[in-house]
Amino acid sequence: MRLRRALHSGVAAVCIAAVAAPGGLAAQTPPAASTQTLDVRVAQARDFSRIEFHWKGQARVTSRRDGQVLTLRFSRDANPDLTRLRVSPPRWVKGAEARHVGGVLELALTLEEGADAKVGQADGAAFVNVFAAPPVETAEAPAPADVAAAPATAAPAPLAEPQRPDPTPRSGVVKLETKLVNSQVLLSFPWAAPGGAAVFRRGNAVWVVFDAPVRLDVSRAPRGLRQFTSMQAFRGPDYSAVRIASPSDTPVFAISEGSTWTVALGPGAQPQPTLVQVRRDEAGGPAALTAAISGVTRVVRVPDAVVGDTLVVATALGPPKGLPSRREFVQMALLPSAQGLAMETFAEDITLTRSGDLVEIGRPTGLALSSPSVAMRRAEAPVGAPQPAGRPALIDYDNWPKTGSGGFLSRYNALVTAAAEEGLDPADRQTSARMALARFLVGSDLSFEAIGVLNDLARDQPQVLGDAEFRGLRGISRVMARRYKEAAADFSAPTLSDDPSAALWRSYLAAKTAQWPEARKEFAAGASAFNQFPAVWRARFARADAEAALAMGDMDGARARIRMALDEKTDALEELAGRLLQAELAEKEGQTGRALKIFQAVARAPVDHLAAPALLHATRIRFEEGAITPTQAATAYDSLRFRWRGDATELETIRALGRLYLSQGRYREALEALRSAGQRLPDLPEALGLQADLNAAFRALFLDGLADGLEPVQALALFFDFKDLTPLGADGDMMVRRLVRRLVDVDLLNQAAELLSYQVDNRLDGVPRAQVATDLALIYLMDRRPEQALVAINGSRSTVLPKALNAERRLIESRALADLGRLDHALEVLAREDSADARDLRAEIVWKQKDWPRAGELFEASLGDRWRDKRALTVEEESKLLRAGVAFSLAGDDAALERLNGRYAGFVGQARNPEALRVALTGVAAGPIGVGEFGRMTADNEAFSGWVSKMKEKFRQAADQGAKQAAAPSGAKNKQS
User: Fold this and answer.
1) Angstrom distance (rounded) from CA 908 to CA 921
2) How many CA atoms lie within 13 A of 635 on its CB side?
3) Bridge pairing between strands 252-257 and 332-334
4) Are 570 and 535 in contact (CB under 8 A)?
5) Helical axes 2-20 vs 875-891, angle rounded to 10°
6) How far apart, in whole angstroms, are the C-alpha atoms of residue 372 and residue 370?
7) HSE toward the beta carbon, residue 258, CA cutoff 13 A
8) Which of 222, 311, 610, 828 has the fewest Cβ atoms within 10 Å of its own Cβ atom?
9) Counting Cβ atoms within 10 Å, is residue 847 exposed (0-12), middle (13-18) or buried (19+)?
């Protein structure tokens, strides 16, 4: 913000200097400043324009519309400033006219053809929104014969509803009631009487459909919950519905209690719904399916605006009954439901009809179904299937991966077959075969395959989410797959909160995510289960605790855990991992020679996940000790980052390379290296450090002056290539200001404008956007592009700008209009401005209009009592005096010329152009210099160059002032620390 204010004041100074330079016009004498009783504010958005009327005190407004003229009649009189509406009206408005009728104000707004308007009041002000009128569509109601001839794809007319109490409340509104119980959200819909409902899932959305067309009030739905992110209510001719955006792995339950339907989101102990049996219709005729749904009440068609199709839904009374999983068919699919039945169709002529408690799914030519002889069957898992371990989060490497005499494929195929057959019948809640397959896959280190089996089991049987062994198996699989965030969710389940075997996994996960205190705490909590794990995992758990101890500065604790890991009887690679950690401990203790030898030995390992970090540490030590040059170190780092990718080692390598490039002045290569992997591996804790290095490097370049040694064009190119790193707030604005100042210094105005234009279009909004747009308009004027200056001003209008900023914007707009030759409009914009800046600019505009008497008066007035000060005139003052004399001479005002000569004759000898000034004070016709030469002396080009020079100086002062303000707080912080 400090940067914006500095640049903001710079713009004001630019305008002040601009008025002093030749090349301006003049205007009428502004009226005396008076208190405005009515302030008219204009703003424009993409889809509408807004005009606000802010009165001092109360005022009523009425409106009438006559064609394209909208007349507003206020209860009071005023003399509002309508310059904006007349000179540069917003979109959809042609002009405005104020009338004073019967002691009150009437304002007539002329709208463009095809425009409409809405009048209202908000926040104590009246407003008019003007917008494009929507197209008028006319449609005739179809004749009864047309309705009868509707296509066969439409759902058949519903059967007569059974006589039952109307569930609709008297108010016609059903208000959502919410409750949070443990990890489950309960959404209740209380009705006046029991009614039919359907609750089903489609992708990442849970639908709740009721058989009565009421308004569902979900305005008080909670926010910020993980069970769902948003909720939207709909109402149709014969139904009402709610669409709930919810992650696809969130369990859904439906509960019927009297006249209240409750939808539960999240794992919990709610009973499962009764299974809806979907069978082939054996009655003969075209192939069809039937489903017995007790208490089915209605079949409705619900549009899904997100997908763009229409769902066919059968609602039913409680208790809940549904389909636990999706059932795919050739021409349609039945969605998983906790209550009722829902169908998405792939063919246009699919129908869903009901008869009593029976629902039939069919089509005129019959459904495409498999042979009737194919039936679902179930088989028990073979004897000898992998059994659960002693604790829910243990791995049994001794028994789970056993394959028997038939080998791996034979064992794997047998377990897969048993698991597949178990999953054929959704009504059977058996999970033993699939859990046995998951144990075999975990024991065989096939983590991704195990995750797939367990996720499918959770979708098919949501109740397993409350099973401790299921959570443990899936958590272990996710750890093996390095999906640490997902694994943490499983090991944080309530069923594993007190289990010591799960505590060791939580310790391991905490170490992998740099949560060092948590890692140590959980390791201690899992000590009682430590010896029950296989040796390989005991070594890994010990190394994880050693990493945590090392990070927290507990060298003795780290040494003890490293020794514990090395004492385990594991393979050579696990031992090398322990030695790698041992070398890091030695480096931390200052034993760099011993650490380097271990690192170099581990770097020769045949696996890169050990060799790469060892080589990284060895290179760093050698570089710090001067054994290799910066170029050799950079080459080693650059080679290493492509040799091993995908974990913390890659990020540490890139950080080291980026810092090395920065120290060598290779700024672009440093930024490219630091940005190359931070976004690709955002979940790793090292990514935070890398991003911090990247941001610090960018700040050092463009905020601390590191890039000042680059050519302005090079600095601009570097900034634009990495502009996404620009911080929000004052620091980001300071970077832009410093760069703009450098570009303006070397007359790269087009590039400076491009930089500010990006800020306006992409980064800012509201008042800050208007402030930067004002600076942009100023640079456009310096670049002789008044049209773009007007666009910048007009495109950033707002009704909430400070008065001082509005005054600056009027000065810039007036100068742009004058440069375009719209002199009358330029004067009208300045009509109510009475500042010194406005008076000087008005004088320049009058000069351009060749109103010589008025121009002479204004230029003389701008000099004030300067004749009393005997010091030499400045270039700016000499220019004003010269123009005043020429104007009085051309106007034939000898008295004024004599007065001017009497006051300023003593300054001629010290003037920059004494002869021209002497002739101007005595009369053009009488002097040796002709009128043509005076025209050249007072030409706009020289004045414009002087004005641009002053603007450059103001930009420099604004940037320096902002830098001092930014440095002051940091210096204070350093002093406090």
Assistant:
1) 9
2) 5
3) unpaired
4) yes
5) 40
6) 6
7) 7
8) 222
9) buried
How far is residue 22's CA from residue 25's CA, in Å, rounded to a whole number? 9
Q: Provide the sign of the torsion angle of the four alpha carbons 790, 794, 798, 799, taken in this order.
A: positive
Of 481, 494, 269, 461, whose CA–CA distance to 392 is shortest? 494
pLDDT at 970: 45
Name the percent of the chain in helix, strand, coil, to the closest 5: 50, 15, 35
Q: How high is the pLDDT of residue 948?
A: 59
Q: How many C-beta atoms lie closer than 10 Å to residue 517's C-beta?
A: 11
Q: Which residue has the tokens 């005190």?
A: 57
What pLDDT shows up at residue 927? 47
Q: How many angstroms separate the CA atoms of 957 and 282, rounded?
A: 90
- Pairing assessment for the beta strands 184-190 and 240-245 based on DSSP bridges: unpaired
Is residue 435 within 8 A of residue 470, CB to CB? The reply is yes
Predicted confidence at residue 260, as pLDDT, reads 93
Q: How many helices (H) and strands (E) does the chain have?
A: 33, 30
Residue 434 burial (CB count, 10 A): 25
| Structure tokens given for 623 | 């570089």
User: Residue 731's CB: how many other CB atoms inside 10 A?
Assistant: 16
For residue 202, what pLDDT is reported?
93
Among residues 282, 281, 264, which one has the least CA distance to residue 273? 264
Q: Is 790 helix (H, G, I), strand (E, B) or coil?
A: helix
pLDDT of residue 781: 87
DSSP characters over 266-323:
SS--PPPPEEPPEEE-TTSSS--EEEE-TTEEEEEEEEETTTTEEEEEEEEPSSPEE-
CB atoms inside a 10 Å sphere around CB 165? 11
